[in-house]
Amino acid sequence: MKDPFGRSIEYLRVSVTDRCNLRCGYCMPQEDMPMLPHTEILQYEEIERLVGIMAGLGVKRVRLTGGEPLMRKDIERVAAGIKRVKGIEFLGLTTNAVLLADKAETLLEAGIDGVNISLDTTSLERYELFTRRNTFAQAMQGLQKALSLPFASVKINCVLSPQSLPADWLGVIKLAQTLPADVRLIEWMPMTTDTQGAAVQAPEALRTIEEHFGTLTPAKQTAPAGPAEYWTLPGFLGRVGVIHAMSKCFCTSCNRVRLTAVGDLKLCLFYDEGIALKPLLRGGMANEEIASAITQAVARKPLRHQGKKMGAAGAAASATSLIDRPCGMYRVGG
Ligand code: SAM
Ligand code: SF4
Fold first, then answer.
1. How far apart are the C-alpha atoms of 220 and 278, rounded to whole Å?
2. Which of ligand 2's atoms lies nearest the C-alpha of 333?
3. pLDDT in tens, 79-134
4. In which band, very low, low, confident or very high, does the pLDDT at 328 lie, cut at 50, 70 and 90?
C-alpha cells in the first residue's frame, strides 16, 4: 500500500489501551482524565482482524504500545493473535517496564520479538518527578528481566524533554556501557500543554555525549532502517541512537500508520486525522470493504508534520468517516 507520495506503508503501531500506571508530564495531562470505557476499546479479535487486513495491504511490522500496553490484562492474547497473522515479520512492544519483570516470559512465548523500554533518567528522585509515580525499582527490574531473555532486541528510549537535565540522559546513555542494549534519545515533541519550554535537541546532546564518553562513530544502519540514526562509543556494549523527531525531518521516508485503542487509524502522529475503523468492524463490513476504506484513508496521509500538533486538516471537506478526535500521545502510542 503506497500513499500519494510513493511511501510504502509497512509499519503499524497499535495502541492497545489508553490507561497507564505512570503520568509522564510530556505525554499525559496532569489532571485526571476520563478513561475510555472497555466497550469502546478494540477487542483482541478485532485487532487481529485489522492487522490481518493490513498485512494483506503490505504491513509487515507491528508494534504494541499504549497508554501502557502491559496494563491490558489480555496483552499476551493480543500479541499471540497478531503473531498468527501471515505476513507479519516483526512484533515489537514499547513499555515503561513497570510490569515487565512479571510478564516478559509470557510475552516472549506469545511472540513478542523486540522490546523498547522508556526510561528518561536513572535517578530515583528524578524518575518520580518525571513520572509522578514511585515505580523506579520495578522499571529497572523489568529492564534486567528483558535483557535476561532471548528477545531479538531490547532498546531503551529516553525523551529529551524540557524537564530533562544532561545528567538524566547521560545517565541513561551510560547504561549502554555495561548492558547489551541500544539507548535512543528521542527529541521531545510538543504534544501536551502540560510540558512547556525549550528542550535540548539531538545535535547538542550528541556534542555533550562526546565530551563525556569519547568520539561517536557512525554505526552501520541495521535493516530495516527506522527513523533512528546510530553511533558506537568506545567500550560501550550498546549503541547510541537518536530519533530526530524535530530537528531533522524524516517524514519523506515515513512508512507508518497508527491504530488507536478505540480503532481510529491515524495517518500522522501530529494530525488528528484518520479513519474510524471500529464502526466498520462492528457494522458488519467485509474485509475487502475495510481494506478499501483503509487504502482511501492512506491516500490522505500528510506529507510532513509542522513541528506542532495539528487539527484534522481538510477532513471536514472530505468523507464523513474521517475522524476529528483529538488524541494525546498516551492515546496514540507515540
Ligand atoms: N507507556 C509506554 C511507554 O512509555 O513506553 C508506551 C506508550 S508511550 C506514549 C510511547 C513512547 O512515546 C514512549 O517512549 C514515550 O517516551 C514517548 N513519548 C510520549 N510523549 C512524547 C513526547 N511528547 N515527545 C516525545 N516522545 C514522547
Ligand atoms: Fe504512560 Fe508511556 Fe505516556 Fe509515560 S510515556 S505517561 S509511561 S503512556
1. 41
2. 8
3. 999 999 999 999 999 999 999 999 999 999 999 999 999 999 999 999 999 999 99
4. low
CB of 92 sitting under 6 A from ligand 2: no
How far is ligand 2, taken at its centre, from the CA of residue 78, in Å? 20
Give strand ranges (E) for the chain. 11-15, 61-65, 90-95, 114-118, 153-160, 182-187, 217-218, 228-232, 240-243, 256-259, 264-266, 274-276, 322-323
pLDDT of residue 270: 76
Instruction: State which of 22, 33, 121, 186 you would mutate to test the pocket of ligand 1, scoring each by most atoms of that ligand within 8 A of its C-beta.
Output: 186
Asked if 160 contacts 205 with a C-beta cutoff of 8 angstroms, the reply is: yes
Contact of 77 with 44, CB cutoff 8 Å: yes
Q: 96 CB less than 6 Å from ligand 2?
A: yes
Cell of 224: 530495516
Closest CA to 276 of 317, 323, 318: 323
* Gap between the Cα atoms of 287 and 275, Å rounded: 15
Kindly provide the b/e burial profile for residues 156-195, where b requires at least 16 CB atoms within 10 angstroms of the residue's own CB: bbbbbbebbebebbbbbbbbbeebebbbbbbbbbbbbeeb
* Amino acid occupying residue 32: D
The per-residue pLDDT for 18 is 92
Give the pLDDT confidence of 52-71 residue by residue, as tens digits. 999 999 999 999 999 999 99
Ligand nearest to the CA of residue 118, numbered in listed order? 1
The Cα–Cα gap between 293 and 300 comes to 11
CA distance 171 to 128: 15
Ligand 2 center to residue 26 CA distance, Å? Answer: 8
Q: How confident is the model at residue 330 (pLDDT cuts 50, 70, 90)?
A: confident
Looking at the CA of 164, name the nearest ligand.
Answer: 1
